[in-house]
Amino acid sequence: MKKKSILFQWIYPTVFVLLAAFFLQTCGTVPITGRRQLLLVSDQEVLGLSETQYKDFITTASIEKNTTNAALVEKVGKRIASAVETYLRSNGLESEIQSLAWEFNLVNSSEVNAFCMPGGKIVVYTGILPITQDESGLATVLGHEVAHAIAKHSNERMSQQVAVQYGGEIAGGLLGNSTKAQQLGNAVFGLGAQYGIMLPYARTQELEADKLGLIFMSMAGYDPNTAVSFWQRMAQSSSGGTPEFMSTHPSDANRIEKIKAALPEALQYYKGAGVQNSGTVSSSLKSSVAKTSEEWKF
Prior knowledge:
Strand order of the largest sheet: 3-4-6-5
Number of strands: 6
Number of helices: 11
Distance between the termini: 61 Å
Shape: globular
Largest sheet: 4 strands, mixed
Helix content: 40-55%
Order of helices and strands: HEEHEHEEEHHHHHHHH
Strand content: 5-15%
């Protein structure tokens, strides 16, 4: 028993040190915020597991095309993505955007929501447009979703699932096992869930997307101060329930206070590019944000 005890005393610390070294080698850093994150899986592995789900969603969803609203979503999304990519390239961070192939789609649905899939695949629901109201409001939402892509939150979520569910199997080539890889993709990307939408990000990731979203809309020439008004309208609209877009966030009041606190930093990136809010949602969607929960199906 004594020999066994001595052996265990040697093995446990050794295993801990080896695991710690492994996880340190697989950490990444989120641009701008500098937060360290666990990245056990590559961008290509994440894209491979999410590609089928995204294609299934796009082929079955009611995508709006050739409408004023759809054009505005694409315009604002591309403007923000372009500004962010320019910033990253100018700061020697080209590697952060190599796996991104941006898509911005508007889906005809009463849900007050928007989401980002790996690779920069972003979807906005028409149900959120009465709250965005104009180009700057839409920039708030799209800046938030672009932030999820740039910060590799999908990769981080998958890595966390790998670490929790499979532990030591990581080094054994977990993602080379198609069955386990598919199970992991189902858990992370919500395959089979309603509308095929990803499960909510963790609160830390959502708060980070809020902050980065302000910075990214600023880079694109949108005044980040207008984000406060958007979130105030969103808080008003959620009186009958919590929209999916806000489901993992802190309370409305706390969230708005955090956004206000982040404004000074975001304004450092604002060049005052003169966006005049010429783009507004079409009149058919410019209804009051005080609609009932039954009407918007919260």
